[in-house]
């Protein structure tokens, strides 16, 4: 490593993105930040946000979910940034939108964070840096934890399935918990088209809430207010500088540590 020139090291590692790694490990690069695509991790993004009409974007989010199977993350993101592009052109319409398919089913089918939420948080991140964005994400995620989904009713002729669907509050931002607790509560197969329709409606629901938050932010009227059981109780001891400083994350603790029969040991004497 130490015999590599800075140029050799950067090209060997595939360029600027890995420059910081070179500096950290070998000490070869003195100006590690040089060549990074962003100023700093926390710096505000450069695009200017525009207010949107949530009622106009909701059907686009729902239809976007179904469009070429691109799913929830794409649906939310495209309904926001794509709508800015349709009204204001560049740079919004220049985004490689299809990449947002990655969020589908909790990121490439892993059931981690709900892709609709990833789509919304990613849209926020195009306009607001960490300090501004984190409270917006928290407001959206807390709302998601507490909401009985789905709420949106598609208009006649929309893609997917027509008719009412049962609702359920999952208490979690995770795709796995959101889908599986709904399926258990309603008796509807997680692999059915009805479940897909549920998620396409949640795509519209999340887009509407995200736009509400963005519009308030643009107006200077965004006032986050939602709290969780976890924040009130558990994090008084589980957190930075507290009795138990081993906790990472802000998810509500209830679904996984709430003593539910559903999180007992299923590896022994089961079923
Ligand atoms: C009064 C302080 C306090 C409160 C309040 C508290 N904890 Fe803890 N908890 C601890 C300490 C101390 C440990 C021991 C782990 C350590 O040393 O980091 C612990 C351990 C745990 C563990 C590890 C397994 C175990 O049982 O030891 C889990 C899970 C946990 N807490 C969840 C929660 C949840 C969920 C809440 C809220 C409902 C909560 N805790 C509230 C202090 C607290
Ligand atoms: C999506 C489920 C989920 C949520 C939500 C969640 N946890 Fe956990 N947590 C786990 C799992 C799984 C482990 C690892 C358990 C093990 O080690 O067997 C864990 C581990 C821990 C531990 C370390 C001790 C241990 O048993 O490994 C603590 C402390 C803890 N959680 C506290 C919390 C608190 C406080 C919250 C809310 C702010 C929270 N967790 C939210 C699932 C969750």
Write the layout of secondary structure elements.
Layout: H1 6-12, H2 19-26, H3 54-66, H4 71-88, H5 115-125, H6 130-146, E1 148-149, E2 168-169, H7 175-186, H8 193-218, H9 229-232, H10 254-257
Antiparallel strand pairs: 1-2
Helix pairs in contact: 3-4, 3-8, 4-5, 4-8, 5-6, 5-8, 6-8
Question: Could you characterize the architecture of this molecule?
Answer:
The protein is mostly helical. The protein folds into 3 domains: 1-37, no CATH class; 54-218, no CATH class; 229-263, no CATH class. The chain is 44% helix and 1% strand. The chain has 10 helices and 2 strands; from the N terminus they run H-H-H-H-H-H-E-E-H-H-H-H. The chain has helices at 6-12, 19-26, 54-66, 71-88, 115-125, 130-146, 175-186, 193-218, 229-232, 254-257; strands at residues 148-149, 168-169. It has a two-stranded antiparallel sheet. Helix 4 runs parallel beside helix 5. One heme C is lined by residues 233-234, 236-238, 243-244, 246, 253, 257. One heme C binds at residues 174, 230, 234-235, 238, 244, 246-247, 251, 253, 255-257.
């Amino acid at each position: 490593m130490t015999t590599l020139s800075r140029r050799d090291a950067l090209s060997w590692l595939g360029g600027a993105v890995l420059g910081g790694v070179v500096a950290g490990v070998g000490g070869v690069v003195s100006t590690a930040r040089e060549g990074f695509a962003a100023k700093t991790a926390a710096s505000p993004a450069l695009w200017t946000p525009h207010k949107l009409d949530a009622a106009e974007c909701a059907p686009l989010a729902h239809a976007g979910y179904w469009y070429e199977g691109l799913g929830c993350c794409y649906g939310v993101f495209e309904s926001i940034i794509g709508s800015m592009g349709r009204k204001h052109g560049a740079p919004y319409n220049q985004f490689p939108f299809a990449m947002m398919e990655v969020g589908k089913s909790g990121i490439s089918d892993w059931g981690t964070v709900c892709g609709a939420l990833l789509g919304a948080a990613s849209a926020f991140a195009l306009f607001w840096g960490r300090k501004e964005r984190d409270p917006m994400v928290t407001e959206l995620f807390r709302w998601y934890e507490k909401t009985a989904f789905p709420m949106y009713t598609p208009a006649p002729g929309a893609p997917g399935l027509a008719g009412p669907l049962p609702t359920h509050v999952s208490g979690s931002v995770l795709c796995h918990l959101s889908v599986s607790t709904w399926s258990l509560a309603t008796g509807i197969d997680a692999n059915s088209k009805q479940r897909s329709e549920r998620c396409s409606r949640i795509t519209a629901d999340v887009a509407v809430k995200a736009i509400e938050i963005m519009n308030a932010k643009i107006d200077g009227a965004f006032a986050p207010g939602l709290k969780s059981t976890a924040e009130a109780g558990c994090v008084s001891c589980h957190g930075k500088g507290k009795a138990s400083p081993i906790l990472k994350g802000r998810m509500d603790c209830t679904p996984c540590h709430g003593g539910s029969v559903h999180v007992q040991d299923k590896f022994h004497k089961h079923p």
